Amino acid sequence: MRRNAVFHKRKRPLILIPTAIVLTALIAGGIYFKWPDLLDYYKTWLPVTVTEVKTTPLAVITGEDLFRAMADELGKVPESESARRAFNTLARFWNAPPLPESSIVNPSDGMDRAALDRKLLRYRFWGNLGALLRLDHPAALELTLPGIGGKRFISLVGMDNEQLLVDPPIAGRTSFSFSEIEKYWSGEGSLLWKDPLNLLPNSSSEANKDLIKKLQGLLKEAGFYSRPLTGVYDGDTRSAVKAFQSSRGIEADGIVGAQTLMLLYRSINRFEVPTLTAGEK
Questions:
Q1: pLDDT value, residue 47
Q2: How much is the pLDDT for 1?
């Protein structure tokens, strides 16, 4: 009888890998594939080092260098264009439309017509800078520039810590000291303002009663008149006007002119009037 040959496959011995080695391999693989994420996470815990960048401040031009820069920069602009730009700067405070670039503005009377077209008034100022600043209105200043024909203007648009803010910038500067502006200013300037109650032509003893009542009402609102609104420009009214003028540092002559009305309207909250202390809009 033939013996059936029985073939048995030899079983390979089971190789046992220590658990520690497996865990190490898994961890190593995880670190390998997750290394970028881990690195980013680690960076979030690193202290932030701020590198201070030191900049060298630009030199401020003063004295004769400032005058030469002023003459050079403003001298390149024709007189009419300089006046147009100054007018537009002031008109912006009143939200009034600007003069187009094609406009030719005669500094003597062109600003008057442009102001009236925009229901504004132009007040021409003569005096010193201290008196102008007491009006606390943006103003176009006429500069004296030897060697430059005609007039040139810069606009006084605000004040900041006793520095005067001007437009356009000169030699990269927008703020100047009192003495720097006064040195080159001719003493003449232009201001734009409004007379909502139309008191200017009629603010005298000959004005009609309704207008004088309005004036007395303004003085009362400002805290300088306590009598009834009589419509008569009497001694009490004149005294109230003088007291108001003195409080604002202008001549106390009892005459209600443009300066008095500008300051009177500004002292009452219901009238929106731009000021230098508020700066440019």
A1: 55
A2: 45
Sheet holding 173-176, edge to edge: 121-126, 185-193, 139-143, 152-160, 163-170, 173-176
Handedness of CA 172, 178, 180, 185 (dihedral sign): positive
* Ordered domains of the chain (ranges, CATH): 64-193 (3.90.70.10), 200-266 (1.10.101.10)
Per the CB < 8 A criterion, the answer to whether 198 and 215 are in contact is: no
Could you please report the per-residue DSSP string of 151-189? Answer: -EEEEEEEEETTEEEEEEEETTEEEE-HHHHHHHEEEEE
* Reported pTM: 0.74
Q: At what angle do helices 209-221 and 258-266 cross, to 10 degrees?
A: 50
CA 234 distance to own-chain centroid: 42
Amino acid at 249: G
Whether residue 148 contacts residue 268, with contact meaning beta carbons closer than 8 Å, is answered with no
